[in-house]
């Protein structure tokens, strides 16, 4: 293994695609129409450096959660490679996959539905750690105490059940469960979206502390641009299954290269009541990912669209150092 | 300007088996003609219960215990159920966070809009024409087609628009909007915010907006009340609240927001979690989490006090907050 490459590009996703087959209605079968396909993730490539936080933003249905789940192999990828520290985990099966999976863990939006309501915190953490052979049975209690301290909860909470906790505490437990396996890469799928603002800030701070202390690599998925701007080093913007722009966070928020990024930033409500506008950031709604338009998939809604946009799909290319955009006419050059 | 609605000392309590949850515990505010008034706060603060109390939509084990809600000279708390029926929808309309649960799944959109015309002397043709016009105003493309469809055939944003159309069909003077954009994507949220803003002006309505999102407040409200544990903690015009918060809770909410701070800069969350409403002590409910807490706070509940004309705060130690800045520069000093 080339260790140099492994260190530079800790996570490397190459040409990843995930298509779902939709139900084939009897009428369509009789009419000999082909089964419809939903390309949730379409030829996505990106890298994340060790210790870096990459943000993934986009509206519902853009494929960000599918991408996350495909990376951790909760979904089988149709195509593409997922290099994790130099090893292609898209090709792993069985025991080898299970071994590797310890190193990448997920945190979900709704911790309640990802925690077993009938298991106490201690039982839940013990189960994960013993199953994955993180430690011996005699060491478990020590590990649990340490984990709970890391996520800011008292050791006494170990005897309680998920139903007894508030949303913020449950998210702390979700984080503790993920950390129990000593992962080096964490995918957080909308980890603070269901929380109240005051609690949201607590969890964001906690994630920042843990990342620094454990030198974690993070893929942070959120629809909340304010949170993403605060938390991430770089951001990838998704639209209908494709990454349309990728850049350093501050640079992206200062100046968007892709018209869709510009729309997203403009649509987020400004925190200044003196700064109100009447016109919409964009008209209409994203089209269905089942019948994608020809050419650039954003072209029907894009105010800059020209002829070529309706014919040719733009590739994600560097428009300026450190800035990738999939647009024939990027707003910055 | 005259108030269209005056809520005074409203108490809505929920009587559980072993405790009484005082969801709304002495809330007073008024909504002016043509104004958008915001009720903002975190889950369980009583903002939705206050909103639902106005239309008397509080169900068992909840009850409006005391207080008055004055609309056009009549007290809605004391009004008969018959009288309320003339208010609901016709005088005061309401839209909800989740349109799918508020819309009727087995009725066409057309039939649901027609229901709102009930009691008006209109022919079916007139109703149809008016409904199409409404859908057009609300921004639903090809209304002639969509009007024959059911809620499940609509996208989330379209459902929210349909619900607004139904609520506006009877031309209410006041629209209660309970988290109308919370379930929507940012670009759709942006459209709905601006739609409600423009409809308000166009139809001369007043709006009561219930939300947890200060961004939505900043884009919609003229005045805001910040609620915590069943009480209004601070009430001011939106610009003042954002520039010179004078209650520690408001300030806490504002400094929890990741906005304008450098990447990686620590957020300043409010410590702890909201209290259990079933077992509040005699003092200020925010005291256990308050960074300005003093000796009075755990003993007595502070009264609402005027900070400046139209700006009220429920805090014993407002003085401690003098000079504290909010999210924006105060009026007049803006660059």
Task: Please tell me about this protein's structure.
- The complex is a heterodimer of chains A (333) and B (335).
- Chain A is α/β, with parallel strands linked by helices and 333 residues long.
- Chain A is built from 13 helices and twelve strands.
- Chain A has a domain of 142 residues: P-loop containing nucleotide triphosphate hydrolases (Rossmann fold, 3-Layer(aba) Sandwich), CATH 3.40.50.300.
- The longest helix of chain A is centred in the middle third of the chain and has 18 residues.
- The N terminus of chain A is likely disordered.
- Chain B has 335 residues and is an alpha/beta fold.
- In chain B, 30% of the residues lie in helices and 23% in strands.
- In chain B, the strands form two sheets. An eight-stranded mixed β-sheet of chain B has the order 6-7-8-3-9-10-12-11, with helices on both faces. Chain B has a four-stranded antiparallel β-sheet with strand order 2-1-4-5, covered by helices on one side.
- The longest helix of chain B has 18 residues.
- Chain B is globular, with a radius of gyration of 21 Å.
- Classes of the chains: A alpha/beta (333), B alpha/beta (335).
- At the A-B interface, helix 8, helix 9, helix 10 and helix 12 of A face helix 7, helix 8, helix 9, helix 10 and helix 11 of B.
Sum this structure up briefly:
The complex is a heterodimer of chains A (333) and B (335). Chain A is an alpha/beta fold and 333 residues long.
């Amino acid at each position: 293994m080339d260790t140099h490459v492994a260190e530079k590009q800790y996570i490397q996703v190459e040409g990843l695609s995930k298509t779902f087959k939709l139900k084939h209605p009897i009428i369509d079968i009789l009419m000999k129409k082909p089964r419809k396909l939903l390309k949730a993730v379409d030829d996505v490539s990106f890298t994340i450096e060790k210790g870096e936080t990459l943000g993934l933003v986009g509206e519902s249905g853009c494929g960000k959660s599918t991408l996350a789940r495909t990376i951790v192999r909760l979904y089988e990828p149709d195509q593409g490679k997922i290099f994790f520290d130099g090893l292609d985990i898209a090709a792993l099966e069985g025991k080898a996959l299970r071994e590797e999976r310890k190193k990448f863990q997920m945190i979900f939006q709704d911790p309640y539905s990802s925690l077993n309501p009938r298991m106490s915190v201690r039982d839940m953490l013990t189960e994960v750690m013993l199953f994955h052979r993180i430690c011996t049975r005699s060491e478990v209690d020590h590990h649990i105490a340490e984990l709970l301290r890391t996520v800011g909860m008292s050791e006494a909470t170990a005897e309680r059940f998920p139903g007894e906790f508030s949303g913020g505490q449950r998210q702390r437990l979700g984080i503790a469960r993920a950390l129990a396996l000593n992962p080096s890469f964490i995918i957080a799928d909308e980890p603070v979206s269901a929380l109240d603002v005051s609690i949201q800030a607590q969890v964001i701070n906690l994630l920042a502390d843990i990342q620094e202390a454990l030198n974690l690599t993070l893929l942070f998925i959120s629809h909340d641009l304010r949170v993403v701007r605060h938390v991430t080093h770089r951001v990838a913007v998704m639209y209908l299954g494709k990454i349309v722009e990728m850049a350093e966070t501050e640079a992206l928020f200062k100046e968007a290269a892709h018209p869709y990024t510009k729309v997203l930033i403009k649509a987020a409500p400004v925190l200044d009541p003196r700064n109100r506008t009447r016109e919409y950031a964009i008209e209409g709604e994203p089209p269905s990912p089942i019948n994608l338009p020809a050419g650039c998939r954003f072209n029907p809604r894009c105010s800059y669209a020209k002829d070529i946009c309706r014919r040719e799909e733009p590739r994600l290319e560097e428009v300026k150092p450190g800035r990738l955009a999939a647009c024939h006419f990027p707003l910055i050059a | 300007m005259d108030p269209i609605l005056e809520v005074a000392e409203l108490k809505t309590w929920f009587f559980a088996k072993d405790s009484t949850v005082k969801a709304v515990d002495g809330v007073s505010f008024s909504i002016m003609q043509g104004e958008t008034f915001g009720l903002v706060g975190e889950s369980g603060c009583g903002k939705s219960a206050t909103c639902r109390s106005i239309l008397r939509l509080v169900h068992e084990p909840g009850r409006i215990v005391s207080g008055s809600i004055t609309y056009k000279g009549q007290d809605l708390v004391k009004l008969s159920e018959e009288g309320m029926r003339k208010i609901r929808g016709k005088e005061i309309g309401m839209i909800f966070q989740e349109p799918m649960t508020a819309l009727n799944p087995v009725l066409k959109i057309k039939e649901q809009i027609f229901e709102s015309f009930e009691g008006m002397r209109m022919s079916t043709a007139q109703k149809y024409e008016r409904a199409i016009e409404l859908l057009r105003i609300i921004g639903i493309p090809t209304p002639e087609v969509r009007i024959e469809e059911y809620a499940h055939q609509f996208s989330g944003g379209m459902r929210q628009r349909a619900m607004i159309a139904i609520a506006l069909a009877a031309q209410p003077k006041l629209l209660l909007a309970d988290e109308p954009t919370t379930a929507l994507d940012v670009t759709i949220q942006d459209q709905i915010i601006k739609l409600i803003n423009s409809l308000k002006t166009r139809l001369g309505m007043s709006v009561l907006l219930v939300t947890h999102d200060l961004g939505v407040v900043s884009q919609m409200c003229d005045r805001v009340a910040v609620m915590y544990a069943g009480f209004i903690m601070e009430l001011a015009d939106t610009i003042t609240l954002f520039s010179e918060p004078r209650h520690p809770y408001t300030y806490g909410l504002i400094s929890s927001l990741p906005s304008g701070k450098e990447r990686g800069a620590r957020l300043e969350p409010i410590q702890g979690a909201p209290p259990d409403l079933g077992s509040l002590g005699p003092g200020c409910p925010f005291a256990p989490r308050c960074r300005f807490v003093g000796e009075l706070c755990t003993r007595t509940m502070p009264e609402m006090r005027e900070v400046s004309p139209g700006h009220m705060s429920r805090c014993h130690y407002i003085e401690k907050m003098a000079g504290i800045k909010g999210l924006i520069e105060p009026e007049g000093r803006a660059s």
